[in-house]
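User: Here's a protein and a ligand (magnesium ion). What would the complex look like?
Assistant: Let me lay out the input and then the predicted complex.
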Amino acid sequence: MARPNPNISALPVIRQLDDAAINRIAAGEVVERPASAVKELVENSIDAGAARVEVTYQEGGKSLIRVTDDGCGMAPEDLPLALSRHATSKIDGSDLLNIQSFGFRGEALPSLGAVGRLTVTSRRTGFDAAQISVTGGEESAVRPAALSRGTVVELRDLFFATPARLKFLRSDRAEAQAIADVVKRLAMAEPFVGFSLKDAGTGRDVFRADPQSGDLFDALGGRLSQILGREFTQNAVPVDAVREGVTLTGFAALPTYSRGAAVSQFFFVNGRPVRDKQLTGALRGAYADFLSRDRHPAVALFIECDPTRVDVNVHPAKSEVRFREPGVVRGLIVSALRHALAEAGHRASTTVADGVLGAMRPEPTNPSEPVVYQMDFASRSRPQPPPSGFSEAPAAQVEPEPAIDLTSHPLGAARAQLHENYIVAQTATGMILVDAHAAHERLVYERLKAQVAANGVTRQALLIPEIVEMSVEDAQTLLGQADALAQMGLAIEGFGAGAVAVQETPAVLGLCNAKALLLDVLDELTDGGTTRAVKERIDAVLSRVACHGSVRTGRRMRAEEMNALLREMEATPHSGQCNHGRPTYVELKLTDIERLFGRT
Ligand SMILES: Nc1ncnc2c1ncn2[C@@H]1O[C@H](COP(=O)(O)OP(=O)(O)OP(=O)(O)O)[C@@H](O)[C@H]1O
Ligand SMILES: [Mg+2]
């Protein structure tokens, strides 16, 4: 029970709050931190048809935020209206389901004016420039001003009127980071608009994106290169798909260009940047086959549909949306991305080759260059190369040129094997270095999937069943899935209370350690519980199973064997990366090699 409030007399009295209080309450929802103010102001500029938007801040936006645009501007008599609550030029209120602009609530400016010192200066063509200010909800009269076009909104001392909020703000750096994130997201959504972001304290240009031209795809590609770096676009495949009137466009990075956190996932719904669990969930589903769970794909995806099929009025900051048919959207994302990645075939990301070149190049690399966030090689379980020295075994030599010229194949003709694993192949334009272990793992996985899809994985019986001891619960978990596992090539039976007998294993694995395989499958079954879709779980189990089939690791391969592996890689979808999103091969063009030796 709450303590009696001394401000309220014994019997409650209902009273109408004044505008200043109402606006402060609304501001609490709309303006959480400086970045939310920036978002509201930049959205207003875009809604006003600006071609260029300039954002300046100081002390992480706490002391100053200024947004300047060259949009349509406002007439002097519109200024008081713009600052009053529920006044908007963007909807007439008759159809809340058909919203085409960023704004529609008529709340942003009055909210900002309630919690900070706000000055709006604006000029509409054919009118004089004028200015109005509000400080903690107190509005000034409209006065003449000097401005050639567009609008300048200046917000100083954000939250001075609500000190409680001020305490929750993070460091200037963190707030500045959040501002940059907001501006970048909006800049991705509007490639034809130019953006710049400046830190007035340091005088530094934080970020700048010039207006793009051309068709939407080109413009978007150019803009994404400016914001996410050229590496992103170089390593991404275009996505363009439609399902039941919903379109999905944008770019999705190859699995080999993944990141350790979900920091490069950008979704836009009808041009609005959103953060949505359903969308990121669908993304995980689409990449489940290519990435281990601790790697995150990088994408910028745009969903467009009739505005009546998505509700944007779910959250005051409009960062969440509700789809009327979430299943359609999820299905579209999963199928379109899988398709686009399959089209990319066995392409591994170019950053892999760039990384290799960077590592080999003799001159020191520029420390200011962005670090290529590639898979962490250190964490790979791979055969360790023997210590180098003269006693090392020579590379396996391949017989003289085979009868047919294999170098015309995309992955070329095998020339040698190094360290009992890596295959060196010559192509028409350069060379390929293949991680045979990783490649083989992927091929086995794809074969297993194809067999499951046909009529079950071909099994081979063990001469003597392998008895694996485990806890009673674990044995029950496995035996409960016995039929499904048999489909996947693993035949098991109970063997007393705490043990399971493995009778058959997938033929494609050849001789394998049945016990290790079974325990791995058990891990996969217990991990993730029942939350994952059946197909995802089957694939996850198969992916684990495939890791056990790498019979080629650690032994010499004959030339035909190596060439057969290369040919199979060419014919197999997704063979450019292993089941964990690491590349299976690296390509070096002759020009790259020549660069290495300073020949060009
Ligand atoms: N930069 C600008 N250029 C021209 N007009 C503007 C600008 N900023 C605001 N306005 C005008 O002021 C009105 C109020 O802006 P405000 O941001 O408060 O509400 P809104 O954008 O309509 O809705 P929301 O609260 O959802 O953002 C807008 O509808 C628009 O007419
Ligand atoms: Mg607005």
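Summary: The CA atoms of residues 291 and 581 lie 5 Å apart.
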